[in-house]
Known about the structure:
Blueprint: E1 3-4, H1 13-26, E2 30-37, E3 44-50, H2 55-66, E4 74-79, E5 85-91, E6 102-103, E7 119-124, E8 130-140, E9 151-156, H3 173-181, H4 185-188, H5 195-200, H6 209-241
Parallel strand pairs: 5-6
Antiparallel strand pairs: 1-8, 2-3, 2-8, 3-9, 4-5, 4-7, 7-8
Amino acid sequence: xxxxxxxxxxxxxxxxxxxxxxxxxxxxxxxxxxxxxxxxxxxxxxxxxxxxxxxxxxxxxxxxxxxxxxxxxxxxxxxxxxxxxxxxxxxxxxxxxxxxxxxxxxxxxxxxxxxxxxxxxxxxxxxxxxxxxxxxxxxxxxxxxxxxxxxxxxxxxxxxxxxxxxxxxxxxxxxxxxxxxxxxxxxxxxxxxxxxxxxxxxxxxxxxxxxxxxxxxxxxxxxxxxxxxxxxxxxxxxxxxx
Length: 242
């Protein structure tokens, strides 16, 4: 058996945890982490990684699978079963918090595993943050000598594209859902490229400038005719007086 399960019902909870901690601190094992986007449940990655490797190794392995630039300020947080954030393990922290966090490159995974199903809340790129759930799902005793760890064991779904600066063709995943649900009036109106000339000729009120001039000219003619009729009316009145 190459997978260790800590679900024996005859062992009390505290004893089970003690045995687990003793085991995982004395034997180099393989951790299988399940990584999901908080807002994209259909995108899943499973990564096998050695227990003595670091959070930086895991961070970079995640983004070899997503295609994202790993050189962004990011953090793992030891979390509860409800994903409440605890101690922070940071990569490229800013000056303000550099002295109050531990660094990924100095932090072995085994030093922060306190539960057989340990969870980490993970924020990638604080400038344009994306949130992940990272959960330990298996502990494997025997490393495969033919595998280089970290190893991408499973990949489901395509990671959403990130809108980088100076990259207008990229898609911002936070705006993608809203954009897809909005009313696309150009498509609904059967818009074609030839219509751009007409759109450019539209004024502020959506009226063709030529049509606007013709309408104004017609209004002036009508006003002039009315004024002429009034003059004739006044002349006829004066004639009656005389």
